[in-house]
Amino acid sequence: MKLLLIEDEPAVVSVITRGLAEAGYEVSVAPDGNSGLQMALNNPSFRLIILDVMLPGLNGIEVCRSLRKAQLEVPILMLTALGTTENIVMGLDSGADDYLVKPFKLQELEARIRSLLRRKTNNTDIPVVPTSPAILSLADLELDTDTKTANRQGKTIALTATEYRLLEYLLKNPRKVLSRLEILEQVWGIEFNMNTKVVDVYINYLRKKINKHNPAELIHTVVGLGYMIRENKADENTY
């Protein structure tokens, strides 16, 4: 299985390529953002891209945005020494599927790769007969899973790919308390407690968009437990 590693630190490149080769992967390396972008665009055989944020030339955020703008759907795993919530959100907003903070263990990298490849296979490679309705709805909110569009009271809601996946997961589990870790695992496919504050940030994004033309709250915080989507507040422990 072919992977592309876009990384400029020789020591990191050596550890990753050696470890992934032993795990059965074929790894190609690009030492900067410009060459990495061209390799990714010109070689459709790569099944996953490992992308460092701090790169010569184009940085990882710019590379990721360019790949998504070109409608390249290959999973992208970002590597960075910047582990703040703001940096993680920036990476995910640029189109990355997962985010791993340096330093990391090779076993964790391999687990993230397997998770992303498994999610990609489940979503696109295996034909599945639809078993759920194309339209998910709650109160006056609708999400069309065929066209990937949302609207409330007939007004379109512009969503990023991550916001769409989050709203879809919430609407598939209405009136159910979902923990932050559950949301991380199901929306991002992350098998580790990376940083649950990322969930709070995206919930806030989603709330603002959903409530832009209608202030009636649908996404509720269940104090100490997580989040729930429902028509009205469940009890005094939600807001």
UniProtKB/TrEMBL annotation:
GO cellular component: cytosol; protein-DNA complex
Single GO term (MF): phosphorelay response regulator activity
PROSITE patterns: OMPR_PHOB (PS51755), RESPONSE_REGULATORY (PS50110)
Pfam families, A to Z: Response_reg, Trans_reg_C
Xref: InterPro entries: CheY-like_superfamily, OmpR/PhoB-type_DNA-bd, Sig_transdc_resp-reg_C-effctor, Sig_transdc_resp-reg_receiver, WalR-like, WH-like_DNA-bd_sf
Domain of life: Bacteria
SMART domains: REC, Trans_reg_C
Entry-annotated residues carrying 4-aspartylphosphate: D52
SUPFAM superfamilies named in the record: C-terminal effector domain of the bipartite response regulators, CheY-like
Domain OmpR/PhoB-type per the UniProt entry, residue ranges: 133-231
Domain Response regulatory: 2-117
UniProt keyword annotations, A-Z: DNA-binding, Phosphoprotein, Transcription, Transcription regulation, Two-component regulatory system
Residue spans binding DNA: 133-231
GO biological process: regulation of DNA-templated transcription
N-terminal signal peptide: none
PANTHER family listed in its UniProt record: REGULATOR OF RPOS
Protein name, per record: Winged helix family two component transcriptional regulator
Native source species: Chitinophaga polysaccharea
Phylogenetic placement of the source organism: Bacteria, Pseudomonadati, Bacteroidota, Chitinophagia, Chitinophagales
